[in-house]
Amino acid sequence: xxxxxxxxxxxxxxxxxxxxxxxxxxxxxxxxxxxxxxxxxxxxxxxxxxxxxxxxxxxxxxxxxxxxxxxxxxxxxxxxxxxxxxxxxxxxxxxxxxxxxxxxxxxxxxxxxxxxxxxxxxxxxxxxxxxxxxxxxxxxxxxxxxxxxxxxxxxxxxxxxxxxxxxxxxxxxxxxxxxxxxxxxxxxxxxxxxxxxxxxxxxxxxxxxxxxxxxxxxxxxxxxxxxxxxxxxxxxxxxxxxxxxxxxxxxxxxxxxxxxxxxxxxxxxxxxxx
Length: 274
Fold this sequence. Notes:
Order of helices and strands: HHHHHHHHHHHHH
InterPro entries: NhaD-like
Shape: globular
Transmembrane segments: 17-39, 60-78, 84-104, 125-144, 164-187, 199-224, 236-254
Number of helices: 13
GO molecular function, one term: antiporter activity
Keywords: Membrane, Transmembrane, Transmembrane helix
């Protein structure tokens, strides 16, 4: 959302957030590796693990799907079309691929894109639509601007505001939070790629992982793996919070020490937006 509306750009976001993102991933993994469960005690046997490996065709579809997502910024930079067109293009590629690899196999029709589209969570989509419309109403009424003025008066640090947004996103989905933040602050308050918008992108993107209900992916994970809220809170939330806090600390350290990636990244056409 921030990228689509111009609050952040591709190159500056990669340069500014790649180190904090890697830190936020590395810290929980390092902490989890110290636990006995991940260290080898109680692991499944090799035969069970082998039976759970993804089939080659499944790996192909997975890789193409991830590649289609990564291709969206490239598509936008090359064509100038809105990102949703890139998503539709990727969906078309997946549609052709699944039809080709499952052609003539009636028992595998459920693995094709049309069947997958029939299982879309329409209620979830309508929920987000209603939330975004509600946020737009609050913005039109001027309430979000008043909230922004209140936060500026009582919390002068933009780092604390962005960090608080990430913590709240563990309870409330980050989509309405980011939409509300964009309604509270415009580009005249914080220009494109400013520290505030980059911190909001990081905090809202990773803060939802602290609780399983903090994101649509977490809710889907609950349904697929049949886990409950308290199991996730006991086993994962502490690691997720450690990674979240470490990422914020890394971002502030990088900015205070003026550490940046080599300027040669600016020569990459689709990253520089040229």
